Amino acid sequence: MFNDVAKKLETTIKTKLATGPQEIDILHWMGRAALEMIGQSGLGYTFDPLVEGATPHPFSEAAKAISPATSKLLFQREYLLPTLVKIGSPRFRRWVVDHLPWRNLHAIRDIVDTWDRTTVEIFEAKKQALSKGDVALVRQVDQAKDLMSILMKANMEASKEDRLPDKEVFVYRTFAFAATDTTSNALSRTLHLLALNPDAQERLREEVTQARKANDGDIPYDTLVALPFMDAVCRETLRLARQEIVLPLSTPIKGIDGREMDSILVPKNTKIFISILNTNRDPLVWGPDSLEWKPERWLAPLPEAVHDAHLPGIYSHLLTFLGGGRACIGFKFSQLEMKVVLSTLVSQFRFYLPEKEIIWQTTPITTPTIKGSPGRPQLPLKMELVNV
Question: How far apart are CA 278 and CA 292, in angstroms?
Fold first, then answer.
C-alpha cells in the first residue's frame, strides 16, 4: 500500500511538471502522502486521492491543525493538565471544556472530536457489515493488512474473557498525528538536503534506478531497506533533523560553586529533558564533522566513541526515536515510509533550491518556512522530470 500511495504522488507531480520545471511546495505534498499512508495502513481507509484541488477530508484538516493548536497551550499542558485530568469524571471535564470561554482549548476539543468521530464511523461500518454476514467484507477484513482489520479479526477470534472492548481496538487513532507531521517533515528535510547536495542526490538516484531496473520497476522490501546509500541518507537526516531542547551530561562539568561534577543528584519526580539535538551532534561522539550532513559516514565503520557512548536509543546509536519504555512505537513504519517515498520521487524528479531562503524553525516539530514568512509552514523546491 505504501507503493500505491507513492505512485499516486508521482503521477500528480508529473502532471504538474508536464509543462516544464516549476516550484512545488514539497511540505504540502509530503504531509498529504504521509496521512494517506497512515490512513490506509492503520485504518484501511482512504482520506486523500492525492490529486490537485481535492477537497480535504475533515480528518486530514484536523491532523494538520493539531500541532499549531497544541503549541499555543504549552504552559498549560506542562503545568496544569497533569493535575486537571485527575479532577472529576470524563463527563464533568468535558462539560468544563465546553463552557470555558477559551478559543484555543475549543480548537483542540474540535480536533479530537473529529478524530474520534471519524475512526468510530470507520470501525462501526466494518463491524456492522461483519455482523450482518457481508461475505465480501468478511473476506476483505480477513485478507486486509491494515492495523484496524488485523485487530478486529484477532479480537473476533479471541475467547470471550480475552476479547478487548471496542474502544481499545481503535485506540491507536491518535497515532495519525505522530505518524503524519514527524515523518512528512523528515521527508521534506531529506529532499531539502538533497537539493543542497546535488552530488548526493545523483548518487542516490543512480542507486535507486539500478535497483528498479533489476526488479522490473518495483523494488521489493528486502532490497529497498538494504540499499546502502539510501539507508545512509535516511540515517544521516534523522541524526541531524530533530531539534528538541536537551541537557545531557556526558563529561564532567563545573557547578556554580566551582566544584567539578561527574554526576547530578536528581530528586524524585524531577522532570528531565533529554538532549536529542546535542547527543546526536556531539563532536566528542561523532567527530569534528558532527554538524555536517554526510551520508558517507554510515558507509564506513563509525568512530569508536559512538560505540563507547552506549547511547540507549533504539535506532543507530541515535536518540531520534528515543529508547526504553518511551521509544517511538512506529519507528520502523517511519523508516519504510521514508524509503518508499524517496525511492519513488528521486528516481523520477530532480530537486533544486528555490530563490528564497529556507528557514527551519525550532518548534515542537521542526518546520520549514520561507525567510520573511515565518507564520506559514512551507518548503518550495524547484523540480523537473528526470526523463523529459
Answer: 13
Would you give the DSSP letter of residue 40? I
**Would you give the DSSP letter of residue 302?**
P
CB atoms within 10 A of CB 63: 25
Pairing of strands 260-261, 253-254: antiparallel
The CA distance from 370 to 263, in Å, is: 42
Is the dihedral angle over the CA atoms 311, 316, 322, 323 positive or is it negative?
Answer: negative
Amino acid identity, residue 324? Answer: G
pLDDT digits (tens, 9 = 90+) for 311-357: 888 889 998 888 887 788 778 888 889 999 999 999 999 999 999 99
First to last CA, the chain: 28
Please provide the DSSP assignment of 169-191 as one string. HTGGGGHHHHHHHHHHHHHHHHH
The Cα diameter of the chain in Å comes to 75
Q: What is the pTM of this model?
A: 0.78
Contact 184, 34 (CB under 8 A): yes
Q: What's the Cα-to-Cα distance from 352 to each of 71, 196, 229, 230, 380, rounded to whole Å?
A: 31, 7, 20, 19, 10
**Segments in the chain forming alpha helices (H):** 2-16, 26-38, 58-71, 74-79, 81-84, 90-99, 103-131, 135-143, 147-157, 166-169, 175-196, 198-214, 221-226, 228-241, 276-281, 283-286, 304-309, 331-348
Which three cell numbers, joined as nine digits, stand for 102?
Answer: 477559551
Rounded Cα gap, residues 228 and 298, in angstroms: 9
Q: What angle in degrees, to the nearest 10, is found between the helix axes of 175-196 and 26-38?
A: 140
Which residue positions in the chain have pLDDT lower than 70? 130-144, 170-179, 241-253, 255, 257, 259-270, 363-364, 388
Cell 470507520 belongs to which residue?
Answer: 122
* Interatomic CA distance for residues 138 and 126, integer angstroms: 9
Q: How many CA atoms lie within 13 A of 66 on its CB side?
A: 21
